[in-house]
Amino acid sequence: MNSSVTIEKVAQISGVSAKTVSRVLRHKGSGYSESTRAKVEAVAAQLGYSPNGSARALASSQSFLIALIFDNKNAGYVLELQLGAAHRCRQSGYHLVIKSVGDGVDAVERVRGLLDATRLHGAILAPPLCEDRAVVDLLVSRGVPCVRIAPSADRPSTQSIRIDDRGAARAATRHLLSLGHDRIAFIGGPARGPAAAERRAGFEEAIASSSRPVAAIIRLGDFTFKSGLDHGMELLGHDEGPTAIFAANDEMAFGVIAAANQVRLGIPHDVSVMGFDDSPAARVVRPQLTTVRQPVREMADAAVAQLLAEKAVSPTRLPMEPELVIRGSTGFARSVP
């Protein structure tokens, strides 16, 4: 970024007004053509211009700060949220504030402290914090627009972005069934997480609709590597263990893979392993992990876009499509020739 380049300079070279440059770079979608947008963005990029959020905040009553607020043990998931939100903030001349909070009353007090110290344009609540009614009520009472990522239901005065967790888990389980697995374990997430409940429901629906008898084994984890490892050791430590394990997120699936390695079981020859998220590490482990791709970065990017929309309608819901990504960690059951 070249701090000496002004918006007036970008406007002069682009052949448009400074107001138009401001609208283009803030992604205000009216009052200019697509060709104008492309020209302004190209000139701004060539000159290294980026809007100065602090200067604009001093010159107006508008805040240029957006907070990503979370209480989530899955570091990979949180990182993807940060990258997506930061990308859109950077494009739009806003600054991203990262805030990790605790459970219950502590979460409310920490969010209150953030609001007391910082004037926010809007806030993004990651799961499972998106279900904390006290936190949501506090944001609404302070007049801070809020977008909730993956909530279980819509709420007045908030917006939401979610995927079809249940449908995605159902499709993933059917993939295992199509490979002939008839002893399938599911390692779910924490009970308070809405996504965890939906993924378990999708798994159970697929098992119930199977045309042949299937033994379903349920374990509850906490979306961490350790819980996947612990449950994996327990499930795979005897001869009658499952032929496939579906973990409700990739971190737990990595733990299951580690457990299989410890008890000297081959993947997928002895046991198939499936995750959920398609985190970057899913393409690094060996074999590569079959998983459901959750567009986490895109969801966070879209959350910022909703907060910056000129005419936000509350509540609004933006669905995002998951995708089953089949890789080397799943294969035919041992009993299937």
UniProtKB/TrEMBL annotation:
Record-annotated membrane-spanning stretches: none
Keyword rRNA-binding: no
Entry-linked SMART domains: HTH_LACI
Keywords per UniProt: DNA-binding, Transcription, Transcription regulation
GO molecular function: DNA binding
Location of the HTH lacI-type domain: 5-60
Annotated InterPro entries: HTH_LacI (IPR000843), LacI/GalR-like_sensor (IPR046335), Lambda_DNA-bd_dom_sf (IPR010982), Peripla_BP_I (IPR028082)
Protein name per UniProt: LacI family DNA-binding transcriptional regulator
Organism of origin: Novosphingobium aquae
